[in-house]
Amino acid sequence: MGDRDSYREHFFNHNWKTGPPPQHVVDGCHWCQLRAFPTHQQYPVTIVNKTGDGATLPKNFKFITQSILTQGVRAADANFRSGCGCADARACRYDGCECLSDMLWDEEDQEPNSDDSDSEMETSRNGNRGGRPSAARAAGQKRAKFAYHSQGDKAGLLRSRYLDSREPIYECHEGCACAESTEGGVVAADGDVDDTACVNRVVERGRQIPLQIFRTEDRGWGVRTLVDLQKGQFVDRYLGEILTAREARRRRSLSTMARRKDVYLFALDKFSDTNSLDSRLAGPPLECDGEFRAGPTRFINHSCSPNLRIFARVGDHADKHIHDLAFFAVRDISAGDELTFDYVDGTVDLASDARHHVAGMTPCLCKSANCRKFLW
Ligand SMILES: C[S@@+](CC[C@H](N)C(=O)[O-])C[C@H]1O[C@@H](n2cnc3c(N)ncnc32)[C@H](O)[C@@H]1O
Ligand SMILES: [Zn+2]
Ligand SMILES: [Zn+2]
Ligand SMILES: [Zn+2]
Ligand SMILES: [Zn+2]
């Protein structure tokens, strides 16, 4: 069924005038699933296929808006959950906000005059230890700091110090006392910051951009942004079924080619530590499988010169074992450009794999100048 045909079926058979069609219709229709997204009006996800190959999304795939905890996977019990007690949300940028307690960075790490220079520290009015950087440095203090810019043109963007790192991002969440940021962010059109809303909820707020899933000529489906993106801008999470390590192993073994299944499986291993006293972190990590249930980011292709990267993001510290996977732009991206990330991101030395090219390796079609030539 071609692009136009799938449109026709949607518009003529799946009538939304009186609300969503029955669940069994939505379950079998990708258009209806996207249409049912709560952000559909503001930030729609569309599907187009202009290649003429007539392909539609896989029938066994369904769009979801939240990851699904499968059998054996549990979020933390209510009595282990906690958030920060910041009554004034401006405090959620500084040492003292419990949500930032694990984000201790030496002040010396911060380059003066870099784009990370934290002018709001000097104008902090909240009485927290958000004093002048030089004062903090003189006292040899370590100061928690938050992952985003909170003022000016770059408000809400990940600081480059973070973009260049593999540090996890800690955010405020539903268990925090600070006020949730309102729809559309905390920065008004005139650039004014809404001081009452917590700025440390960027991933928490969810995708704020329209995306398009499109049929590429040579790599199946891909994803493009329909708006310009700035370096450091949050795109969306990677969603899927959260599996126990055992279930992930079972699904790999069912797949004809383990490496093929691997592209959909992300280990939630950012906090894994065999020495951890928390058994959930000491054992083999949970994995997120986006093959059958996921959001639009599941269709993002690989590039050896990618424009996105995945960061681990934590809300409640008791849920580190099910941390989020958040895509951020690592450079400015123009509207219409395809979004890509590096599937191996330094974990496998593909360059040496390529040198020892063996039959059966999958060629990389990313076309970037520094292409490593093979996916796996
Ligand atoms: C996670 S999926 C991405 C969406 C996929 N294109 C689709 O149509 O469902 C990964 C698959 O996309 C294809 N792919 C992604 N990046 C590629 C690249 N740079 N070169 C060749 N194939 C690629 C491969 O078939 C890979 O197994
Ligand atoms: Zn706080
Ligand atoms: Zn908080
Ligand atoms: Zn907060
Ligand atoms: Zn490549």
From TrEMBL:
Localization per record: Chromosome
Instruction: Using the UniProt annotation, give all residue ranges assigned to the region (Disordered).
Output: 108-143
Q: Does the keyword Metal-binding apply?
A: yes
Q: Which domain of life is it from?
A: Eukaryota
Q: Where is the SET domain?
A: 209-344
Q: Where is the composition biased (Acidic residues)?
A: 108-121
Has UniProt tagged this entry with the keyword Iron?
no
By its UniProt entry, which SMART domains does this protein fall under?
A: PreSET (SM00468), SET (SM00317)
Indicate, by first and last residue, each region the UniProt record lists as having compositional bias (Low complexity): 124-139
Q: Where is the Post-SET domain?
A: 360-376
The name on file for this protein is Histone-lysine N-methyltransferase
Q: What is the lineage of its organism?
A: Eukaryota, Fungi, Dikarya, Ascomycota, Pezizomycotina
